[in-house]
């Protein structure tokens, strides 16, 4: 039987970085150019965070959830290399468009802990190029998931991606944020749900208010200054990673929001199946058979 990863503290890190080498029309983030000063600050923040994790003893998993693209920045690659080698670190995951360098993963000690949450963005790269990147990950033994925003203009690409990826690679679908009612037809939902059996929970989130959630108990959102919140969606400050005791703030909690429609949030809900179903791959949406 699958069980949730036991007693692992998940840290969802989002620092200063806000720039991306892509320009997707549906990007949920306001894209910025990062100045040299901002990039230097981001690098210092990531190094400080990595140093803090290094000094801990408890089991920890990390998910880098940047506002922009991090894999093109050397300091994130270095941080992942460092974290993956630490015995108490169980997973080092990162959301990426997969356009950045991959050579640093070759033969990496702790490679089995790396998890890449890879999004294919039609219009920003070709399917052939994206698949070539996935094939390189497969050849190196890197664990990853692949996903797309489910928009009608992407339907052919979703089908082509599913047909081309190895059968065991989970292809997740995110509902388009700015959709109106009846955006998805019944006919299209039939095949979209067949591709991603969890798509229904993404496009039609189960109300979350009052529901038990690991956010703030075994999962925390961390910014570049170490400021802590239970998750990226509830702004209440819980303390600071570098100056406060985690034991003073980690406790059982329930969700104060009506809706939690982003996987990085609702994956932490205790009443939904993602922790036991995805196991140690939960932060990067990696299904256990991979
Ligand atoms: S790759 Fe991601 S962060 Fe970059 S523009 Fe596209 S959606 Fe936004
Ligand atoms: S359900 Fe989502 S919004 Fe609510 S506390 Fe958990 S992660 Fe945060």
CATH class equals Alpha Beta
Number of helices: 8
| Extended strand count | 11
CATH architecture: Alpha-Beta Barrel
- Reading the helices and strands in chain order gives EHEHEEHEHEHHEEEEEHH
Number of domains: 1
Distance between the termini: 17 Å
CATH topology-level name: TIM Barrel
Write out the strand line-up for the largest beta sheet, numbering strands in chain order.
Answer: 6-5-4-3-2-1-8-9-10
Mean pLDDT: 95
Q: The biggest beta sheet, please?
A: 9 strands, mixed
Q: Give the overall shape.
A: globular
β-sheet strand percentage: 15-25%
The residue ranges in which pLDDT falls below 50 over 5 or more consecutive positions are none
Helix-strand makeup class:
alpha/beta
List the helices and strands and how they pair.
Layout: E1 9-14, H1 36-54, E2 60-64, H2 74-84, E3 89-96, E4 114-119, H3 127-140, E5 143-150, H4 155-164, E6 171-175, H5 186-195, H6 199-203, E7 212-213, E8 219-223, E9 227-231, E10 234-240, E11 253-254, H7 263-266, H8 274-278
Parallel strand pairs: 1-2, 1-8, 2-3, 3-4, 4-5, 5-6
Antiparallel strand pairs: 7-11, 8-9, 9-10
Helix pairs in contact: 1-2
One iron/sulfur cluster binds at residues 208, 213, 215, 230-231, 233-234, 255, 257, 260, 265-266, 268-269.
